[in-house]
C-alpha cells in the first residue's frame, strides 16, 4: 500500500471521528502510540513491532489529514537525498 492510499484509507475509516476529536487530543493519542512503539521495540517481538508501527503510522496519517498535509507530498522532502546536504547516503557530519 502506498502512503497516499494509506492516508486516504485512514481518512475513510476514521476521518469523521478524528475531526470531531480534534488535533490536540489526536496528538495525545499519537504520543500514547509512540510509547507503545517504544515498548514493542525494546521488549516486544516482531509481531508487536509491526502492530505498533502500523498504529503510529495510522495516528500520524490522522494528524496529517486534520492538518491538511498530504503525507506523500511531505515525504518528497527526502526523495532526492538528505534535505541538508543533498547526498545519498547522508554526508552530514563526515
Ligand atoms: Zn546530510
From TrEMBL:
It holds the Pfam family MazG. Residues 28-77 form the NTP pyrophosphohydrolase MazG-like domain. Gene3D superfamilies: MazG-like. GO terms for molecular function: hydrolase activity. Keywords: Hydrolase. This is Pyrophosphohydrolase. It comes from Egibacter rhizosphaerae. The lineage of its organism: Bacteria, Bacillati, Actinomycetota, Nitriliruptoria, Egibacterales.
Amino acid at each position: 500500500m502506498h502512503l497516499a492510499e494509506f492516508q486516504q484509507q485512514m481518512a475513510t475509516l476514521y476521518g469523521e471521528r478524528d475531526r470531531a476529536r480534534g488535533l490536540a487530543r489526536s496528538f495525545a493519542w499519537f504520543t500514547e502510540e509512540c510509547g507503545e512503539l517504544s515498548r514493542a521495540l525494546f521488549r516486544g517481538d516482531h509481531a508487536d513491532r509491526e502492530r505498533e508501527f502500523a498504529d503510529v503510522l495510522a495516528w500520524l496519517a490522522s494528524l496529517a489529514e486534520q492538518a491538511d498535509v498530504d503525507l506523500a507530498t511531505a515525504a518528497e522532502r527526502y526523495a532526492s537525498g538528505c534535505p541538508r546536504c543533498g547526498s545519498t547516503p547522508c554526508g552530514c557530519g563526515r
